[in-house]
Structure formats: structure tokens, C-alpha cells
User: What shape does this take?
Amino acid sequence: MSRLDGKAALVTGASKGIGRGIAIGLAEAGATVAVNYPPTEGEAGAREVVESIEADGGSAFALGADVSDESDVRAMIEAFESAEGAVDVLVNNAGILTQSELAEMPVEMWDETMAVDLRGVFLATRFALPGMLEQGSGSVINVASQLGIKGAEELVHYSAAKGGVIAMTRALAREVSPEVNVNAIAPGPIETSLLDDITEEWRERKEAELPMDRLGSVSDVVPTAVFLASEESDYYTGQTLSPDGGDAMH
Assistant: This one.
């Protein structure tokens, strides 16, 4: 029997990057997985993730929704619950990353980051949580960032949003335990499309800073998500686990 047999999971922002890896990892562990993608893009990627899971004998389906839009998220959770019942595992992974010094930052950039990276976590959790509480079990896994712990120049908005996710994780864990476990993952710099525009100079400097001497890969993050989704983590709540190569020791 696999670790997540009989569980139904929803992973937001799962058409690529860390979300894609987590969706596949949860399916390999036995869960049925809903692969969320933003409706304006990512459908092809989400379909590819579903096909990959099904080709390996797993079960998955795609769900389009803008995580920052209340009606979209409400409809997504209703569609999930209609198909699978209450969400057993919610992975709030969807996020965006832009760069600007605060003194020059357009207000729209701040607002968009907060809308996706923090409001999106609230909305998906808000509408999935009643079903979890009614069934008396569930796991919420919020994908934050090591920058929510240590901060970074030109990423004040992103750091603030991810710090908010970590604070929300701790507060909600106190509110809904022991019925629902709420934890966060704070990855370090991971090789995904979010790093497509970094310079070689930045890469070399970052690798030199990291005790592990390298940037992370998606495969460094996935086992943490599978662990937090499984019964093996039943005594974990309100925690932030950090597969970050030692970037933000805490």
C-alpha cells in the first residue's frame, strides 16, 4: 500500500516547476491529484502533467482557476469536491516572482504579488477548509520561500508575501488543529523557470553563499511535500521545513 492511497490532493500552480514536481510526487505516492493552472496560460502544461501521471498508472485531472480570484477559487473547490469529496491534501504552491527596488516599485507590482502569493493561499484554504473540518482530517501545505525568513534586496514584495504565508501557517495551525495539520515548505533557490532571467554572475555568487554549494532542484523539494501529506507527519503542525541548502538557517 502506498503512503497516500485513497487521498485526494489539489496542487495549485501545478503546470510547471515545483508544483508540477509535487503533483507527480503525490500521485506516485498513491493520491488522486487535481493539477491547477491559471486559465490564461498553463493548460497545455497541466494536461501534460495529467498525462504523465496517468501514463505511470496514477490518477489526475486538470482544474483551471486564477488563485487570486474569489469566484474562480470557489468554483475550483466546488468542482473538486463534486468529483472527489473533501480535499485531503491542499498544496498552495501557485506564485509569481518579479524584481524591483521598493523606491521604484509600481504599486501594481506589489498588489499583483500579494494577490497571487498571499491572497491565493488564503482563498484556496478558505474554501477547502470547511470540507476538511467536516470530515475531521486534512493537510494544508503552503509553499513559501526562504526569502520569507531572511528577505532579499529588490524582492521586498515577494519576501513580505512569503513571510505572510509563514505567519498564516502558524496562526491557522493553532486555529484548526488537531483536525487539520497546516505546515509550510520554504525552498531556497530552485532551478525552475523563475530563475530563467538570472545572470551567471548572480548564479555564481549565490552558489558560493550556499553551504551546499549548489542551487536546488525540484527533486530536493518534492519529498518534503510528500512527507507532510502523509501520516508520517501527523505530529507536525505550524512548522516551516526548509529544503534550501542552508540558505536560511533558523
